[in-house]
Amino acid sequence: MIGLAGCAASAPEAVAAYQARGDQGYNELSRPLLSEVSVSIALQPDVGWEAGADRVRVRLPLSMVEDGVNRAVWWAEEDDPFPRGPLDVVVPIVLDPGVWSSFTIDLSSFARDNLPEGLDLALQGLEVIVAPRGDARVLVAGVRIEESVCCEELLSAQERLFEEIPGPVTHLIGLELSYESTRHLTAFGNPVFVDYETLTLHQPIVLVDWAHAQGARVAVTHVFGPSADVINPSLDRDATVAATCDELAESQVYGADYLEVGYPVRSLDITAHLEVWDCLMARGFVLPGIGTSDNHFTRKWDTLANPFVTWILTDRAETWPMLDALSAGRAFFGDPVRTNDPYFDLRSPVGDMGAIVGDLPAEPVVVEAEVMGADGVIRWVVDGEVVATGASSLEVVPGPWTVVRAEVWSIEQRPLLFSNALILSTEPHEGRAVGR
Q1: pLDDT for 221-263, tens place per residue?
Q2: pLDDT at 23 over 70
Q3: What are phi and psi of 327, to 5 degrees?
């Protein structure tokens, strides 16, 4: 429960805001509408309040319905001519000077009945906006934001929602573990509910160990920080890539299982994300690359700056077979909007995509790229360098640690599809060891 009391306005407009906060790793106000959210508030305009001239409004901002587009639900008087967003919805209220008026909205039911996105939204704040002509004020109390669904029941509701929403992907549910400012982590597999009272340091390695102890697997997401889907002009590209690789390598990538690579643009462009990945693989870290698992959307993929997803090569669409195939590197990632039922694999006489093949002679190995559903040009990348373009196969002479992967780019230089790596070595190697 929260309270906002005595919101006085002596300026033309005053705002009392209960905003989301991220300390202790927990966003206190963000509530998925799937958790059956209700909101209550009580307002009392003072006796100097002039109806029809002085105004008070309550704004409930919701999550984005598509990239960069939000909507909000408002409580406001029916004749209030205030400006609002094109997607906003107003619920009318009546206020009397000197009288407490209480309002409650079952926000989830309201969204289910009135908003096109239904429950595919989250409440992300509460603002009381007071706009008087003079010194009139409004008292605010009894603010309550309540949920009736949580934990495993909420995850089940998410799974049902994803199954119902048409779109180009099948969702593998992930749980975001960390709201720490630079390192976000997503867990897959077993549900992980972090005890932030115990894990007060919120260090990524602590969270990864916690998730692994509960049987989950973890991806490191958006490695250049939590900035929005734009280029951050303050970043020195090359220095940032080098520093990010060094920091992740020094921390042993926190022991995580996957690295989120598929961002066309987030702080830096996709080539910078790929360079960090290549840098880590060159140092011996075998981390399957994945698409934007830290993407908080389920619809309107064609509007997203970062629509990338991960395709997992398995014939079993169940959580653990999918994660086992992903951990084995049997996956590729890319754009589901600009491809058509794509397929991407690397094959060779000694091993296929995801394999680490050791004890090879230093003699040419022919690697074939099997690509379907993408109209573009293949680029071959060996040890982080583009070595050939256009051909569907490549001769590679193994060295002590040779990392081979392939990319598909459109004629317009849009990133389309990216394979995981095939690692060839003249030295003995067993399994998929992390680090060297």
Answers
A1: 989 987 766 888 889 999 999 999 999 999 999 999 999 999 9
A2: no
A3: -65, -25
3-state SS assignment for residue 326 = helix
| DSSP 3-state of 117 | coil
- Nearest partner of 59 among 35, 83, 33, judged by Cα: 83
Q: What is the pLDDT of residues 338-351, one digit of tens each?
A: 999 999 999 999 99
For residue 179, the Cα-to-chain-centroid distance in whole angstroms is 11
Question: What is the rounded distance in angstroms from the CA atom of residue 183 to the CA atom of residue 175?
Answer: 14
Give the pLDDT confidence of 137-178 residue by residue, as tens digits.
Answer: 889 998 999 999 988 888 888 878 877 766 656 667 778 886
Q: How far is CA 5 from CA 2, 57, 383, in A?
A: 10, 15, 61
Q: Are 60 and 18 in contact (CB under 8 A)?
A: no
DSSP track, 193-223 = ---TTT-TT--HHHHHHHHHHTTEEEEEE-T
- Angstrom distance (rounded) from CA 330 to CA 342: 14
The backbone region for 157, taken as left when phi is positive above 0, alpha when psi lies in -120 to 50, beta otherwise, is alpha
Structure tokens at 251: 């921390």
Residues linked to residue 186 through DSSP beta bridges, in sequence order: 176, 219
Q: Report how far residue 424's alpha carbon sits from residue 403's, in angstroms, rounded to the nearest whole number.
A: 7
Q: With contact defined as beta carbons under 8 Å apart, do 342 and 334 qualify?
A: yes
Rg (CA), the chain: 26
State whether the Cα torsion 219-185-218-147 is positive or negative. negative
SS3 state of residue 152: helix
Helical residues (DSSP H) of 291-332, grouped into ranges: 319-327
Strand bridging mode 37-45 / 137-147: antiparallel
Question: Side chain identity at 342, as an amino acid letter?
Answer: P
pTM of the model: 0.77
CA distance 71 to 87: 5
Comparing CA positions, the residue from 156, 131, 147, 168 lying closest to residue 7 is 131
Q: Which of 259, 252, 187 is nearest to 224 (CA)?
A: 259
CA distance 175 to 211: 10
Strand 174-176 and strand 137-147: pairing?
unpaired
